[in-house]
């Protein structure tokens, strides 16, 4: 860890999700979660272990990043992936 590394505000919750993804099958929801987290941590100055585990999940499913994004674009165009109790709540941070 570099001294300039930052801790992402969602890091603790994301760590649990990434651990689950590493043990999960490739479903539409899991693909969407992996893509969302890859975007979140892309070029983020920190959480390097999470970034490595995201890469590992991608490898386990035999996908490139471009294939992942292609699949998730198709999924999102066909249906709503996330169902939230509070529709006003967003997870963009």
- What is the radius of gyration? 14 Å
H/E series: HHHH
- Which sheet architecture does the biggest sheet show? none
Strand content: under 5%
Supply the number of helical segments: 4
Mean pLDDT: 89
Structural class: mainly alpha
Low-confidence stretches: none
Number of strands: 0
End-to-end Cα distance, whole Å, is: 22 Å
Anisotropy-based shape: globular
Q: Helix proportion of residues, in percent?
A: 55-70%
Molecular structure report:
This protein is mainly alpha-helical and 93 residues long. It has a domain of 65 residues. 58% of the residues lie in helices and 0% in strands. The protein has 4 helices and no strands. Helix 1 packs across helix 2, helix 1 runs parallel beside helix 3 and helix 2 packs across helix 4. It is globular and about 45 Å long. The two termini are 22 Å apart. 15% of the residues are buried.
Write the layout of secondary structure elements.
Layout: H1 11-23, H2 28-41, H3 48-60, H4 65-78
Helix pairs in contact: 1-2, 1-3, 2-3, 2-4
């Amino acid at each position: 860890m570099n001294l300039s590394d930052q801790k992402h505000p969602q890091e603790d919750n994301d760590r649990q999700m990434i651990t689950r993804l590493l043990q999960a099958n490739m479903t539409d929801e899991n693909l969407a979660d992996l893509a969302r987290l890859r975007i979140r941590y892309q070029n983020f100055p920190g959480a390097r272990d999470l970034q490595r585990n995201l890469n590992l999940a991608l490898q386990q499913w035999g996908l490139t990043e471009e294939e992942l994004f292609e699949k998730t674009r198709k999924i999102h165009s066909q249906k709503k992936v996330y169902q939230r109790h509070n529709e006003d709540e967003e997870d963009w941070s």
